[in-house]
Amino acid sequence: MNGVHPQYKDVMYGKLIKVQDTNIEDVMKALEQVIAYDNVYGLQHNLPLYLLYPSVLHGLGIIDNKDEIKLTFQKKDSTIIEYAVTPLEQPNYLPQMLARRTFSFNQTNLNLNYDVQYLPSDRALYLPYRMCAEDKSYPIAAFEQNVLKTLHSNKVEKLIIDLRNNPGGASWVLDPMIDKLEEVPALTGKVFVLINQGTASSALLNAYTMKQKLLATLVGSPTQSSPNKPGEVKIFKLPESGLNISYSTKEFHLVEEETDSLYPDIRVDLTITDYEEDVDRVVQTVLSLNP
What we know:
By secondary structure, this protein is an alpha/beta fold. The protein is built from 9 helices and 12 strands. Strand 5 and strand 6 (124-128) form a beta hairpin. Helix 6 (175-182) runs parallel beside helix 7 (201-213).
């Protein structure tokens, strides 16, 4: 129940059907006008994020009062519940979303950009890579050494690198480790890279690079953008409004054919039941494969 206020636990895993007096289908159509997206997967990923901003809903005429919003939910037993909710302060939005989008399986050291977890019963090494940026509290060189040490000191039949919901950053941060892993022939056919609608920018580039260099198998759902597009995003803040503006600094053309997404080799689409049962079916799919 991470990220869910006890006051609203009754509608957990229910379906949002109205915002104020507008059906959710019409809310989604309105939000499509203000969301920048390359494909339907990017739209699906960003729709829940934009629902968190009262200013956006107010600007689209969906709500009148930004300080209190009426939400209508349909529970699994078809019961309808209405709540008048007060929006959270903006800095609290992202942690709430991150908590909702992770499983207990990978909630260790969520404050780190990357981590190392050895799963002895599955003989698997799991590497969550949450952002393409060096973590000041955990230098990337130390992470690389930890990965290689764990690889060489344990029997590893599967190397799982999780790039789901990684928004990008700088692709070069992971390149040295990818090169090191390329020098380990025992990993051939044993590398699995997890992707989804939240895999973007430099994370998408890292996934493609590992598919080429490590012959990695991509598992999960399609990415929110094409492998042929601008990337290496940087951010600056507008001095008056305080709004963050992102911009690309490099153009990428990874594949010759025209494609709207980087598609997985093994597709696994999560359902609300997976969240309810706290089962990460993408990871479980990889672990169930014959070594």
